[in-house]
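[09:14] KT: can someone run the structure on this one? pasting the chain below
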Amino acid sequence: MSEYYLVDVKSISSKVPRSQFSEDELEMLARSILDAGGLLIPLLLKQTGAESYDVLAGDRQYYAAVKAREINPRQAETVNAFVVAEKSAQAAIQQFSVLYPEPHDRSPQRPPTDGIDQRLSNLESRLESALQEIKQSQKQDVQRLEQQIQTLQKQIPPKVEALEIFNSASSVELLQKLKSAGITGKNATKLITAIEMARAEEKFTSFTDIVKRTNGLGLPRMLAILDAWNHRV
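[09:31] RB: done, structure tokens below
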């Protein structure tokens, strides 16, 4: 069984070296990802840990997503992908390779046929349709996660002002709070630095605002933090 997710780009790895792809091509694809608001063809991933994934298909798209994150870390923090179970991996790879074959020799072999314009038109129509479906799915995912955050926020007793913690807590206090949510070591240090940098520009107005302006803090991680704080009260 496969599931559609928005996955943190930093949690993905590929066994195919980046050097196999042209940096110019990756940058061009990265710019198109940023302009289109996401990948037209989601990655195919296998989960290898709690927050780690391997690319099963779509290595070119993955490195383009990495390049997009290098260009704009906030906008390209996550990438759309299908995550498949181990037992379904081979079947998923086979299906993916049939639907989205990788280009091979690009040198002209024969003159274009009379039907090439029609094929290009059909491909453009399919890509536009796929983009609209992805955007709608992403919008639904964001709305669902925001509703979960609001539900958790209502469950937190008044004496625990979670938003105030993000706005005013010292580095030591934030470290303790994040530790209670299972975030420790370098991950906690990086997250604290990102929180302090974001709130120095302007105080957070909501949990959604925190997620949008804090590098490395996605909606799933925010949900986990609020849930942990709620259960410790």
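[09:33] KT: thanks! The longest helix spans residues 116-155.
[09:34] RB: yep, looked fine to me
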